[in-house]
Write a structure and sequence with these properties.
The complex is a heterodimer of chains A (524) and B (120). With 524 residues, chain A is of the alpha+beta class. Chain A has 3 domains: 75 residues; 122 residues, OB fold (Dihydrolipoamide Acetyltransferase, E2P) (Beta Barrel); 236 residues, no CATH class. Chain A is built from 18 helices and 10 strands. In chain A, the strands form 2 sheets. In chain A, strands 1-3-5-7-6 form a 5-stranded mixed beta barrel. A two-stranded antiparallel ribbon of chain A has the order 9-10. Helix content of chain A is 59%, strand content 12%. Chain B is mainly α. Chain B has a domain of 60 residues: DNA polymerase, domain 1 (Orthogonal Bundle). Chain B has 5 helices and 2 strands. In chain B, strands 1-2 form a two-stranded parallel ribbon. The radius of gyration of chain B is 30 Å and the shape is rod-shaped. The termini of chain B are far apart. The interface between A and B is large, with 50 and 40 residues.
C-alpha cells in the first residue's frame, strides 16, 4: 500500500490522521501555548486561501501543516480544564462536599479485610452544593465507596457526600504510572465515600435522557444471563456481550491473557462486526430491505456503544461499520484505510489523550495489521502447487481448509503487527495466540449468536432458553479447556521487561524493509 | 485534488478550528452556573435524605431518633434508652445486642447506621 505514492494520494484521510496524531504528540512534548498555535493556524489558513486556486503541492503542504497544528490545538484544549471542573475543588483537599453526578463505568466490587466490600467506579460530576445553592460541575472522578453493601449500576444518577483528593501513584510498581493512566481517561480527582449511607440514588432525575432506556436494557440483559447461566459462565458472556469484565475469576482471566486471546473478553471491533453480521443476517432472513436494515444497524450500533461503556475499540468499529453501511447505501466504494483513519480522527477529536492509551493503540494496530499483512502473507505462502492440489480435494473440505488458512494468516498478521505493543504495555509475548485465535474466533461467532438468542428469547419459552444455556456452558467449557491445554505448549508465552521504544521503532522499520524487499522482487 | 475538494478541506479545517477556539475560550471564561430550580430541588431532597440517613449515636439519641433505625420500634427504642441509663451508656456498637429485642439479624441491619460516642 505504501510502496507507491499514488495509493497514498488516494487516501488523504490516512495522511490527515497521521498528521493529526503527530500534532497531539508534539503538543504533549513541546508544551506550546494555545495562543501561538492559534496565530499559526490563522496565518496558515490565510496562506492556504491564497493558494486554493492553484492547488498543487504547496496547498497540500499548507493543509498538512494546518491539520498538524489543529491536532496540537485539540490536545491543548482538552488539557485545559473548564472553570467548573471538579479538580478545582481540590484547592482544599480533604473537604467534604455533596456532589451530584452519574456512574460512568461498570462498578467494580472487591472484598477487603473484615468481610468489607469496596466499590469503585468512574463518576461524572454534574453539580455540587455550595452554601444553599447547587452549582454546576463537570469532569470525571474515580469514586470509591469504602464500606459497600448495595449494588450500583452503570448509568445511575446519584448524590454523594464525599471527600475529595488527588490521584496517587502506586508504590512498588515503577513502570506503571497510575496518575498518567487516569489522566488519559480524563480523570484528575478521586472521591472517597465512607459508606452506602452517603450515597443516594436519584429515582426521578429531571429531564429525559436517551441513555436511560439503554442502561435499562443492559441491566435486563445482565439479569437474564445470571438467571440462565451458572457462574463463571454468566461473567464470561457478560464480558463478551456487555464489556463487563469485573466478575471474571482471576484464574480464567489469566488463561486468556497468557494465550493472547483476552480481546475476546473485552468487547472489541471483532464483537461489533460479528453482532452486526448477525443482525444483517436476521434482517435478510426477514426480507427487510437492505437500506432499511442498514439504518437500523447504525442506530443499534449507536446504542451498543453506550451499552458497552463507550470503549475505544467499540467506538472505532462502530464508526467503521457505519461508514461501510453509508457507502453501501450511497453506492460508493468502501476503503478500509480511509474508514480506519476517519474513525481515528473522530476519536482523537473527542479525546486526544486516547492516543497515549493502550486500548487505542492496540485497536488501531490490530486492524491495520489485519488489513495490511493478511493479503501479503496469503500471497507469500500460497504456492502454485497448493493451488493445483486443491482441484483434487472435496469441495466442502476445500472450503474448510481455505477458511482455516485465512484465519491462520489473519491471526499471524495480527501477531506480527501487535506483539511489540503488548510487550511494551503489558510485558508479555504470546506466540501461542496465533493458534489460540484460530480456534477461538470461529467459536466466538457461535457464542455471541447463542447469547443474543438467549437474551432475546421470551420468558415463556424457558425450555429453549435452558437448552441454549446448556449449549453455551458446553462451548465455554471447551474454550477454557483448550486454552488451558495450549498454555502447556513449550514457549507458549513469556514475560519481557522494560521494552525500549527505540527497539519497537527498529522492529517496525525492519518489517517495512522486508515487505518492500519482497514487493520489489514481485513476491508480494 | 479538485477546487471544490480543496474548498471542502479548508471549510472543514476552519470549522474544527473555530470549534476548538470557542471551546478553549469558553473554558477560560465561563462562570459557575446554578442548577435549574427543579434539579436543585431534587438534589436538595437527596442531600436531606443522606443527612437523615446518617449514623445515630446510641449514647445520646432520643427515642424519636432511634426509631428511625430499621427494625427499631418505640418499645425497642425505650429499651435501648433504659439499657444505657442503667449501664452508664454503651461502650461499643456490639453491646446493643444485650438489649432485649435486638438479635444478630437486626444488628446486621443497623450496624452501619449506629455509632457510639463514649465521650457523651
Amino acid at each position: 500500500m505504501f510502496q507507491n505514492k499514488a495509493s497514498l494520494k488516494k487516501r488523504p484521510l490516512l495522511i490527515a490522521f497521521l498528521l493529526f496524531g503527530l500534532g497531539i504528540i508534539s503538543a504533549q512534548s513541546l508544551n506550546i501555548p494555545f495562543s501561538i498555535i492559534a496565530v499559526l493556524i490563522i496565518i496558515l489558513f490565510l496562506f492556504a486561501c491564497l493558494t486554493i486556486a492553484k492547488g498543487g503541492s504547496i496547498f497540500l503542504f499548507v493543509s498538512g501543516l494546518l491539520i498538524l497544528f489543529l491536532g496540537a490545538a485539540t490536545y491543548i484544549n482538552s488539557n485545559t480544564l473548564p472553570k467548573d471542573h471538579i479538580s478545582y475543588l481540590l484547592k482544599s483537599p480533604g473537604s467534604q462536599y455533596y456532589i451530584r453526578g452519574r456512574i460512568k463505568s461498570e462498578p467494580i466490587y472487591k472484598w477487603q479485610r473484615w468481610s468489607k466490600r469496596r466499590c469503585s467506579f468512574t463518576f461524572q460530576a454534574t453539580a455540587y452544593k455550595q452554601g444553599n445553592a447547587w452549582l454546576r460541575l463537570s469532569g470525571l472522578s474515580k469514586a470509591e465507596i469504602d464500606d459497600n453493601e448495595i449494588d450500583y449500576n452503570y448509568g445511575d444518577d446519584i448524590v454523594v457526600l464525599a471527600t475529595l483528593k488527588g490521584p496517587v501513584n502506586f508504590s512498588g510498581n515503577s513502570s506503571f504510572n497510575y496518575v498518567k493512566y487516569l489522566k488519559a481517561k480524563g480523570i484528575y480527582t478521586c472521591i472517597d465515600i465512607e459508606d452506602d449511607y452517603n450515597v443516594l440514588p436519584l429515582k426521578n432525575s429531571a429531564g429525559f435522557s436517551i441513555r436511560r432506556p439503554i442502561y435499562d436494557i443492559r441491566r435486563v440483559t445482565e439479569k437474564r444471563l445470571k438467571l440462565y447461566l451458572p457462574y463463571p459462565d454468566n461473567a464470561l458472556i457478560s464480558a463478551m456481550l456487555l464489556a463487563s469484565r469485573h466478575s471474571i475469576p482471576k484464574r480464567i482471566r489469566d488463561i486468556f491473557v497468557k494465550t493472547g486471546s483476552v480481546h475476546v473478553l473485552s468487547v472489541s471491533g471483532l464483537h461489533v462486526a460479528i453482532i452486526s453480521a448477525i443482525l444483517f443476517f436476521i434482517f435478510t432472513l426477514c426480507c427487510v430491505p437492505r437500506k432499511i436494515s442498514s439504518i437500523v444497524i447504525i442506530i443499534f450500533l449507536a446504542g451498543y456503544v453506550i451499552v458497552a461503556q463507550e470503549r475505544t475499540p467499540i467506538l472505532r468499529a462502530s464508526i467503521m461499520i457505519t461508514i461501510y453501511l453509508f457507502s453501501y447505501m450511497l453506492d460508493r466504494d468502501f476503503d478500509i484505510y480511509t474508514a480506519l483513519s476517519l474513525a481515528g480522527i473522530i476519536i482523537l477529536i473527542i479525546n486526544p489523550m486516547q492516543i497515549f492509551s493502550a486500548g487505542f493503540i492496540l485497536s488501531f494496530a490490530c486492524v491495520f495489521s489485519l488489513v495490511y499483512f493478511t493479503p501479503k502473507l496469503e500471497i507469500l505462502f500460497t504456492r502454485r502447487s497448493e493451488r493445483n492440489m486443491s482441484v483434487n480435494i472435496n469441495k466442502y473440505l476445500l472450503r474448510v481448509l481455505q477458511y482455516a488458512r485465512r484465519v491462520l494468516f489473519a491471526s499471524l498478521a495480527v501477531f506480527v503487527g501487535v506483539w511489540p505493543i503488548t510487550a511494551a504495555y503489558f510485558g508479555i509475548i504470546s506466540p501461542i495466540s496465533i493458534i489460540a485465535n484460530i480456534f477461538i474466533i470461529p467459536l466466538l461467532g457461535i457464542i455471541l449468536s447463542l447469547s443474543i438468542v438467549l437474551v432475546c428469547v421470551p420468558i415463556f419459552l424457558q425450555p429453549l432458553s435452558l437448552f441454549i444455556a446448556y449449549l453455551l456452558h458446553g462451548l465455554l467449557e471447551v474454550v477454557v479447556t483448550v486454552l488451558t491445554r495450549l498454555l502447556g505448549v513449550p514457549f507458549a508465552y513469556f514475560y519481557v521487561f522494560d521494552v525500549q521504544w527505540y527497539l519497537i521503532v527498529f522492529y517496525y522499520a525492519l518489517v517495512y524493509m522486508v515487505v518492500k524487499l519482497l514487493s520489489d522482487r514481485n513476491m508480494l | 485534488m479538485q477546487k471544490t475538494e480543496r474548498i471542502a478541506v479548508l471549510l472543514l479545517i476552519l470549522t474544527l478550528s473555530i470549534f476548538t477556539a470557542l471551546s478553549f475560550y469558553n473554558k477560560l471564561h465561563q462562570s459557575r452556573a446554578c442548577l435549574t430550580q427543579e434539579e436543585s430541588l431534587i438534589s436538595t431532597r437527596a442531600q436531606q435524605a443522606i443527612i437523615a440517613g446518617k449514623r445515630v449515636d446510641i449514647n445520646s439519641a432520643n427515642r424519636y431518633a432511634l426509631t428511625r433505625l430499621p427494625g427499631i420500634g418505640p418499645k425497642t427504642a425505650e429499651r435501648i434508652i433504659d439499657y444505657r441509663t442503667n449501664n452508664n451508656g454503651f461502650t461499643s456498637k456490639e453491646e446493643i445486642l444485650n438489649v432485649k429485642g435486638i438479635g444478630a439479624k437486626k444488628y446486621k441491619a443497623i450496624k452501619h447506621r449506629v455509632e457510639v460516642d463514649v465521650s457523651k
